[in-house]
User: Fold Adenine deaminase from Tahibacter aquaticus.
Amino acid sequence: MVQTAVLRQIAGVAVNPAVPDRAALNRFIQAMPKAELHIHIEGSLEPELIFELARRNQVKLPYASVEDLRAAYAFTNLQSFLDIYYAGASVLLHEADFFDMAWAYFLRAKADNVVHAELFFDPQTHTDRGVPFAAVIDGLRRACDRARNELGIQAELILCFLRHLSEEAAFTTLQQARPHRDKFVGVGLDSSEVGHPPEKFQRVFAAARELGLRAVAHAGEEGPPQYIWDALDLLQVQRIDHGVQALRDPVLVQRLREQRIPLTVCPLSNIKLCVFGDLAQHNIGELLRQGLVATINSDDPAYFGGYMNQNFVETFDALQLGAAEAITLARNSFEASFATHADKARYAALLEECCREHGVEA
Ligand SMILES: Nc1ncnc2[nH]cnc12
Ligand SMILES: [Zn+2]
Assistant:
């Protein structure tokens, strides 16, 4: 049924006179309310802010200038990116630094009409350098609260364990997080995927679920479909981050479709990290045609060349997607979010209003 509905929508847009050209479609995408569910807040740290914080905190960087740093953003795979990403985060020392980083992201997200955002953060990247856990989470939480009050963006935090580190280190982090339980909604799993399968973190995810936390995990970014199975069965996650390798396993696709397990896909990230050769080869169109609850997200926008709307517009151009897919992706993002029922209803109403204003069939 779901698949039929998607196909009908896709068929509809090809002849939809309400969206006559790419420029009109881009205006609709720009205005469309959307949720961002896969953003590493440390990956929103723009080179300019890295240099400003380095100066403020007297941290020496191995790059002479913003341009020098940007020139180093030529990645061949996930690990080549992570090495630079962790180096960039070394300028974050104080509560105010975490606030400034997240606030800069929220201003950018507002410009893209993001109405709901769930931010990943990597506490171990900071606590391992001696930064107190409280400085990290309090700065981020303060920015989330201000985003809600001043920008109308509902924002939540998801604590990610670094999978290249040990299970014991993840347990220590969960312990540090316990007094701050009310400041974040879930746990995730990120960093180097291949060689660090979900099973390594089965017990720590069980402990997190005991605390009433939601669970998500990166799986099937570079790693095999089996990691997606294991994230679902062993970690009992509610969403899969990336998941683009799922199409290699038709039985897995059937499960994802039937259980409506969302995939938080990040097209520009996948190109920058060489998961696909170019956007025309990206499989997000196919994921939608297969009836999966796929969403579009920016991952690490300061490193990968674009925030939400850039991801949408470049992907839509390359794959010749239309308004029907844009609406499906926005709806999927709300469905996949950890928003309350009341907020989900409000987002749906905003989307309908946007469709009406742009003459697009909802
Ligand atoms: N794309 C990505 N995959 C895994 N870990 C990450 N940490 C930041 N970005 C990441
Ligand atoms: Zn990610």
In short: Residues 1-15 have pLDDT under 50 and may be disordered. The CA atoms of residues 29 and 326 lie 7 Å apart. Strands lie at 34-40, 114-121, 154-162, 186-190, 214-219, 239-242, 263-265, 294-296. The pocket of zinc ion (ligand 2) is lined by residues 38, 40, 190, 218, 241, 299 (CB under 6 Å).
